[in-house]
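User: Could you walk me through two proteins back to back? I'd like the raw sequence and the structure tokens for each, with a short line separating them so I can tell where one ends and the next begins.

Assistant: Of course. Protein one, sequence then structure:
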Amino acid sequence: FIEEEFRKIIKTQNQSIVKVQLKKDMNKVEKLQSELHMIDAPKNNNHKIFVKSKEDLENFDAMEYFDTVPELLGQKHNRLKKNQLETHLINKGDANLPRVMSKTKQAYKKLADKIETKKKMEDLLLT
């Protein structure tokens, strides 16, 4: 009889520990998702350019207006102009690109790991 009560106590304590860990993991997942949600989110193109006439609209050239190259037209922020590209200002940021990409990849891996752990904890509670 005492052994059975002891098993029940151990089981409820284990469930409590799993529930606490699950809550921690859920909070970490939510935090990571809030930090990363903008990286791959589709962006609405709401940039409006006003022209004087329909003729100006028909003759509108975005490359000329933004003074940039076609490869950078889709970039909504920090769109470099041709003269900036010619003076090699872009080279100052090149060194950081691999590091930024690596950190982003690591953050997504961490998020995936936390989600997997959360699923395992939920399965453990159900059994």
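----
Protein two, same layout:
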Amino acid sequence: KYQTRMKRFEVLEQLGEGTFAQVVKAKDFKNNEEVALKVMKEEYESEQDALEEPEIKVHMDLGSHPYICSLKEATFNQNQGRLSLRFDLMDHDLSSLIKYR
């Protein structure tokens, strides 16, 4: 289980992994829904450092766009120094759609 300070998420399965993050399907107990969590691999010293992550800034600048999954929330785990980005869970990822079209 991936645990935040509120024990908010339960990891259901890993969806992918890259150089900078791991993406998992998780149960969000706060909203009672399944979500995609992008858990950044970098360990941050503080919440302020984590919130300066370039990916957060890009999503904030983009705002809402019909072809981009919007960032719903950024959560910082103080104990682990980890940043998680919460997105809506999609049926497919872009690389799979391109590969199998």
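The longest strand covers residues 9-17.

Let me know if you want the two compared in more detail.
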